[in-house]
């Protein structure tokens, strides 16, 4: 078998963390660098050749869009090299789903791009990082991962970057693929793809970040029935170009918010309605006609923020943004 050349981009997170005496809490991220993490993998040399770099050393709470742009541009640059077959990104889990969707939209390669991380520090008795990283490399090395868009490999699951969601704060099975996104599983060296995302991604996405240095600001506002609409004044005063509402149920909002929303959409601030509910979708509603809002369909508020920001870079026309949310 021809061994694949896998390039690992390490960014920090719990997979690189050191804690106390086998414990899982109170650890320090970023202590172990890429080279020492790779050394903990037993048997990987039979699967692939590894190379890589420590592109950042941060907790994923700090993985802001500016950093994601740097990461995506680096992958785009490296993906042109024949000497690299696939990529594995290691990052903290807290914002992993945003990174996965962002890269899924702007990385221009059909080579596998796999993201993984860990829920337990590398020094914990129950450290899950080595197995997740091993699995991610196995999937990255598999021919069936080609052209599938950015994938997350975590606790034996292969999940589409579009649909992956963090669903737990401490258990190792911390990720799911909403109800649509689990693509398959990995079990030692067995990779079994069962589903794939049909939404446009990577080389079929219309978004190109080559000449982009920053993206328009988009904020998420989490709804509750007592929250005053002046919350939006903060975003307006700071030149946010878009707002994603994490609405109740199917993206619903109170009467007291509606006039403010109309004022914003009339002033060319895009407003997308998503839901705080875990499953289901926010579909088009009379509200959208009346207040010029846009439904997020099956995208969570976090994913909708990423898509809106990338799309706003191209255009803030209502019809364009509406069509982007229908298609992605
Ligand atoms: N389990 C984790 O990776 C969380 C650690 C940290 N908050 C991060 O996201 O980087």
From TrEMBL:
<dbReference type="InterPro" id="IPR020827">
    <property type="entry name" value="Asparaginase/glutaminase_AS1"/>
</dbReference>
<dbReference type="InterPro" id="IPR036152">
    <property type="entry name" value="Asp/glu_Ase-like_sf"/>
</dbReference>
<dbReference type="Pfam" id="PF00710">
    <property type="entry name" value="Asparaginase"/>
</dbReference>
<dbReference type="InterPro" id="IPR004550">
    <property type="entry name" value="AsnASE_II"/>
</dbReference>
<protein>
    <recommendedName>
        <fullName>asparaginase</fullName>
        <ecNumber>3.5.1.1</ecNumber>
    </recommendedName>
</protein>
<dbReference type="InterPro" id="IPR006034">
    <property type="entry name" value="Asparaginase/glutaminase-like"/>
</dbReference>
<keyword id="KW-0378">Hydrolase</keyword>
<dbReference type="InterPro" id="IPR027473">
    <property type="entry name" value="L-asparaginase_C"/>
</dbReference>
<dbReference type="Pfam" id="PF17763">
    <property type="entry name" value="Asparaginase_C"/>
</dbReference>
<dbReference type="InterPro" id="IPR040919">
    <property type="entry name" value="Asparaginase_C"/>
</dbReference>
<feature type="active site">
    <location>
        <position position="14"/>
    </location>
</feature>
<dbReference type="InterPro" id="IPR027474">
    <property type="entry name" value="L-asparaginase_N"/>
</dbReference>
<dbReference type="InterPro" id="IPR037152">
    <property type="entry name" value="L-asparaginase_N_sf"/>
</dbReference>
<feature type="domain" description="L-asparaginase N-terminal">
    <location>
        <begin position="6"/>
        <end position="196"/>
    </location>
</feature>
<comment type="similarity">
    <text>Belongs to the asparaginase 1 family.</text>
</comment>
<feature type="domain" description="Asparaginase/glutaminase C-terminal">
    <location>
        <begin position="217"/>
        <end position="325"/>
    </location>
</feature>
């Amino acid at each position: 078998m021809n061994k694949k050349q896998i390039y690992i981009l390490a960014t920090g997170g719990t997979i690189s963390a050191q804690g106390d005496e086998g414990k899982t809490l109170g650890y320090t991220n970023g202590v172990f660098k890429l080279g020492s993490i790779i050394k903990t993998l037993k048997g990987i040399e039979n699967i692939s050749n590894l190379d890589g770099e420590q592109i950042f050393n941060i907790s994923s709470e700090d993985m802001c869009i500016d950093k994601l742009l740097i990461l995506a541009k680096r992958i785009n640059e490296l993906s042109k090299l024949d000497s690299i077959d696939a990529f594995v990104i290691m990052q903290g889990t807290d914002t992993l789903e945003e990174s996965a969707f962002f890269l899924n939209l702007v990385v221009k390669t059909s080579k596998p791009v796999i993201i993984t991380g860990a829920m337990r520090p590398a020094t914990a008795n129950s450290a899950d990082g080595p197995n997740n990283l091993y699995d991610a490399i196995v999937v990255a090395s598999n021919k069936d991962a080609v052209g599938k868009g950015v994938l997350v490999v975590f606790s034996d699951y292969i999940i589409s970057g579009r649909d992956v969601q963090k669903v737990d704060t401490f258990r190792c099975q911390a990720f799911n693929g909403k109800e649509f996104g689990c693509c398959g599983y990995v079990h030692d060296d067995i990779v079994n793809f069962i589903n794939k995302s049909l939404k446009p991604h990577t080389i079929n996405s219309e978004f190109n970040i080559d000449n982009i240095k920053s993206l328009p600001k988009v904020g998420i506002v989490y709804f509750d029935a007592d929250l005053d609409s002046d919350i939006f004044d903060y975003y307006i005063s700071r030149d946010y170009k878009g707002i994603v509402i994490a609405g109740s149920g199917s993206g619903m909002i109170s009467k007291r918010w509606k006039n403010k929303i109309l004022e914003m959409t009339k002033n060319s601030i895009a407003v997308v309605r998503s839901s705080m509910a875990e499953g289901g979708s926010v579909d088009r509603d009379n509200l959208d006609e009346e207040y010029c809002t846009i439904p997020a369909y099956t995208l969570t508020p976090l994913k909708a923020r990423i898509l809106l920001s990338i799309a706003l870079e191209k255009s803030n026309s209502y019809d364009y943004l509406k069509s982007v949310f229908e298609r992605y």
